[in-house]
């Protein structure tokens, strides 16, 4: 019996099915996501394009017929506005302080919750609760129960009749935001702690390393990527803080606690200046994108992930 060799049959090039991201199968997989994509474009990108369009016009709603094209003059006026520069400085200060303090408190709480003790589940639930409260409700809670000069808990504990929101407006807003975002930081850092290799920690303890040495040499490097993620996400959300300032201090006294979102709100809905408020919004978006881009590149290098092009 002789054995005949068979050759593989190849499909002609003209009848091969297209393979790749533009193939029909790929589009079928992406089809369920199209409604969400269209909705996102509708509620985010179209308003942003209109904001860019309005930023090149001088338009005040209380002056009928004032709408006309002015080019880049709104942007020049915005950067020449001392209140805008002050609001930008307040925004940077508010974001940096709140993110760092919330991260340090979250790190301490995560280290405590990483241990076994009776009632750990109940304690964890109680510590997460502030993050589950609506920001507006949390701001009103702190305004009425903590900072009230007559019935507030702070004056009850420390004595006196200090009007915290008038004398320390920015610090009061920071306290409420830190209280709101510390559980978020705690959850991220706790996830990093629980992903550690227990064998490595036990080996370090057997070799005679103390708790501080284990934390500094093993735990902290392991948490680097989680800390960076917490800083990035916390900064993105806290830089847009509006509820606490609007409900607790209304940006005052004066402009002591006015950040960029609240100042843009004042110019748009109290001053009715559509042109300059739109220019401010575009500037804030561009600055946020620049900072987020550098932060994301740093995170990609830390996680060892190549950027999607």
Automatic annotation (TrEMBL):
Membrane-crossing ranges are 33-56, 87-113, 125-142, 173-193, 226-248, 279-300
**Localization of this protein:** Cell membrane
Signal sequence bounds: none
Q: Which GO terms describe its cellular component?
A: plasma membrane
Asked if the Swiss-Prot or TrEMBL record annotates the protein with the keyword DNA damage, the reply is no
What keywords are annotated for this sequence in UniProt?
Cell membrane, Membrane, Transmembrane, Transmembrane helix, Transport
| One Gene Ontology term from the biological process aspect of the record | transmembrane transport
Indicate the segments forming the ABC transmembrane type-1 domain, all copies. 88-295
Q: Does the keyword Membrane apply?
A: yes
Give membrane topology per the record.
Multi-pass membrane protein
Which family does the entry's similarity section mention? Belongs to the binding-protein-dependent transport system permease family.
Its name, as the record gives it, is Sugar ABC transporter permease
From the broadest rank down, the organism's phylogenetic lineage runs:
Bacteria, Bacillati, Actinomycetota, Actinomycetes, Pseudonocardiales
């Amino acid at each position: 019996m002789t054995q005949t060799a068979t050759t593989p049959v190849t499909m002609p090039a003209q009848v091969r099915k297209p393979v790749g991201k533009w193939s029909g199968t790929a589009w079928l997989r992406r089809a369920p996501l199209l409604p969400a994509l269209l909705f996102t474009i509708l509620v985010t990108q179209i308003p942003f394009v209109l904001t860019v369009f309005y930023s090149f016009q001088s338009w005040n709603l209380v002056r009928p017929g004032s709408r006309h094209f002015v080019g880049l003059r709104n942007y020049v006026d915005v950067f020449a506005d001392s209140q805008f520069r002050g609001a930008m400085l307040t925004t940077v200060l508010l974001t940096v302080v709140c993110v760092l303090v919330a991260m340090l408190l979250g790190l301490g709480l995560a280290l405590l919750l990483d241990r076994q003790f009776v009632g750990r589940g109940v304690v964890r639930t109680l510590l997460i609760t502030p993050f589950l409260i609506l920001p507006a409700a949390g701001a009103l809670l702190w305004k009425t129960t903590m900072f009230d000069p007559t019935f507030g808990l702070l004056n009850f504990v420390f004595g006196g009749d200090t009007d915290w929101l008038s004398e320390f407006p920015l610090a009061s807003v920071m306290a409420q935001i830190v209280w709101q975002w510390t559980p978020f930081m705690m959850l991220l850092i706790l996830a990093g702690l629980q992903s550690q290799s227990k064998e490595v920690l036990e080996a370090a303890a057997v070799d005679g390393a103390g708790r501080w040495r284990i934390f500094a040499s093993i735990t902290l490097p392991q948490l680097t990527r989680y800390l960076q993620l917490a800083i990035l996400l916390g900064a993105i959300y806290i830089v847009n803080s509006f509820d606490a300032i609007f409900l607790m201090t209304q940006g005052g006294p004066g402009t002591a606690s006015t950040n960029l979102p609240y100042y843009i709100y004042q110019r748009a809905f109290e001053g009715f200046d559509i042109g300059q408020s739109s220019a401010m919004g575009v500037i804030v978006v561009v600055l946020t994108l620049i900072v987020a881009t550098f932060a994301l590149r740093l995170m990609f290098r830390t996680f060892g992930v190549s950027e999607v092009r």
